[in-house]
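Batch queue: ligand-bound targets. Current item pairs a single chain with flavin-adenine dinucleotide. No template structures supplied; prediction is de novo from sequence plus SMILES. Inputs echoed for audit trail.
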Amino acid sequence: MLSYDIVIVGGGSAGLSAAVAAHDAGTGSILVLEREPRLGGILNQCIHNGFGLHSFKEELTGPEYAARYIQMADDRKIERMLSTTVLDVSPKLVVTAVSAEQGVFQIEARAVILAMGCRERPRGALNIAGCRPAGVYTAGCAQKLVNIDGWLPGREVVILGSGDIGLIMARRLTLEGAHVQCVAELMPYSGGLRRNIVQCLDDFDIPLLLSHTVVGIEGKKRVEAITLAQVGESLRPIPGTEKRYSCDTLLLSVGLLPENELSRQASVELSPVTRGPLVDESLETSVDGIFACGNVLHVHDLVDFVSEEAAHAGRKAAEYVQAGQERRPRREDELEVRVSGGVRYTVPSRISPSSMDERLVLRLRVGQVFEDCYLSVYAGEKRIVHRRRQVVAPGEMQEITLRRSQLEGLEPGSHLHVLVEGE
Ligand SMILES: Cc1cc2nc3c(=O)[nH]c(=O)nc-3n(C[C@H](O)[C@H](O)[C@H](O)COP(=O)(O)OP(=O)(O)OC[C@H]3O[C@@H](n4cnc5c(N)ncnc54)[C@H](O)[C@@H]3O)c2cc1C
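Prediction returned. Tokens below.
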């Protein structure tokens, strides 16, 4: 059986950044397994700019951003197997994969990093009434058709869901000559970044209809029209508000789901909120030696933060391998991170102060829009973080930096509490 110190599942931005960081932290043998014929993941189809502002202080396109990391992996001669799909990861860190060249084969690892990304929520998950004609696409699928395959999926388009991919596709399709009639969003706020609403909708006079949803699709062979209706507070359509839009295409941008079938097979405990693995301060999952990062862990808005998080996972996996038998038993002084008051989740959700670096970035999302508020962290009764924010919204991931000194001395078994406060 093949044997590597670290096996990384997925060669997108998370997998590549983790590989580079693990190499730079001194790991000898690293293997990246990628099911597509090229590295880079979803960035390869994101040909718009806006990537890398944080990491490289430059505005890059998705493929340019990916190319930087591929070059770093090439410079370090990090091994990769392309067109190779991982079928199974066992709790004992045996990875089973398949490729046309090698058939089914197994690799023994001392640590595994899960970096499989996410997939889009499909039409089937939405229960939209009406026919089943051609012309209903997820926004990411349309992005691939336009940007990689050179096909325009339709001419008269309605988009359901105001996540970033939907917003970016509204602009992309407009630039390619299609007419985007509107973007409809179920919630009373957009799921995308503010900058994308301005640059992709406002700049092109594309209306954003908040609190609206699709209640019907017409057309036998191809979409001929869709009906939108306003929704009330219960998110149910309000009778009498229906409006019919003649169109040939409906794009769905209604959420991303971390791709965690392999994590489940490996007995990794998953969060019911993020649907990604529950991890500690090292981004190690509930299974010893299995780490997770990027969109498979929780959905990110910006790739720069994916790269930063994945580099942390890579360094920690390297430390794990180097520690070998000397490894400290986990969870001795672990603190649980609890959320309330509008915060939906944090990553990590467990922190061991003795194992954390001097500083730890806690990433979180809120469940609704809050203006002029504070993000607070309590350790027992004591408030240890109180950060003012003009606005926090579900579409924008928030970060809080914790210092080790703030957590040392807390009773083992106690918890941290993260919430949004008015003052
Ligand atoms: C359609 C879409 C468009 C996006 N557009 C933007 C954007 O414009 N700007 C932005 O900042 N962010 C965008 N994002 C977010 C983007 O996904 C992240 O910023 C980042 O690129 C995610 O990196 P990742 O490595 O976690 O996932 P991915 O880039 O998805 O990489 C995961 C990789 O794992 C591989 N993989 C999965 N399962 C297996 C398996 N079993 N075996 C082997 N390989 C496997 C996949 O083939 C893929 O290459 C977009 C996301 C999506 C889904």
